[in-house]
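thoughts on these tokens:
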Amino acid sequence: MTNTGYSQMRPSLQFLVFIAVTVVMLIIGLLISMGIITLLYNFDTFMKVSQLQIDTPNAISALWIIQFISTTMPILAIPVFFAYVIVKEPESYLRLTNKFPWQLIALVFITMFMSLPIMEQLSDINQRLVLPPFLKGVEEWMRASEQQAEKATNILLKMDNIWDLIKTVLFVGGLTAIVEELMFRGALQTIFIRWTKNHHAAIWITAILFSAFHMEFFGFLPRLMLGVFFGYFVYWSGSIWTSIWAHFINNGTAVIVTYLYQHKTIKTSPDDTHVFSLAGYVFSIIITVLLLINYRNIALAASRNTTADGTELD
């Protein structure tokens, strides 16, 4: 594809522009959500909910508005605006093609579940992270931020009935997966592939930014590894839909398990660790690696010469 206009920008400059667009979109989203909550309720409600004071009337509804308007919609608008308006290459920067072997959908599904012990072990390692004494203040801030994020998540994942479950699966599992994958595995990963000229480096850098973006420091490692999986799914297949599907499975499963635990259908908390044995971890690693190799071979066999952005697969 011949680049025109802004798409001739160096990848480093594209990254800076992308960051600028991100900041502007998030600010706009925050202002719009503040305006909507102020109109529907009052400004005091917005301020209290922003501080996660949920004892105020309409707090949960206001929190959903903030989540949707100030976070989810801007994250969707950022890559779409960047791809269509800034670089004018939506095919390369969004990767919305559905031309990939559909066996990959089944492989993604199996891989996500077979890798659960790996993610659980990484989470356990992350939770035991202790910084050096001279960084005690940083660690305390990280733990406080984690608790705030967990509090907000628990509010959003409070599901009283099956309709709450369906709504939450569609929003947290579906919509969140779409917007985050377009932003990270779509636009950002493409920028870093063109910048570093090394897809491995690009996938890991994007995964690091993806995990850091969530501001949940003691869940950094498992989210990093998820980001790596998502990145390779997209790179090998050339399609964003593979990582959206993987992301949906991850988030949707967490929502369903939370619902079942809340309603005492299962006894295992979604926050529990040490669920698997050593044999389970070893088996998970072996099978996950084999599944990823199989995924790669099928994807490359279907499109051996070029990826969606015209670079040679290897």
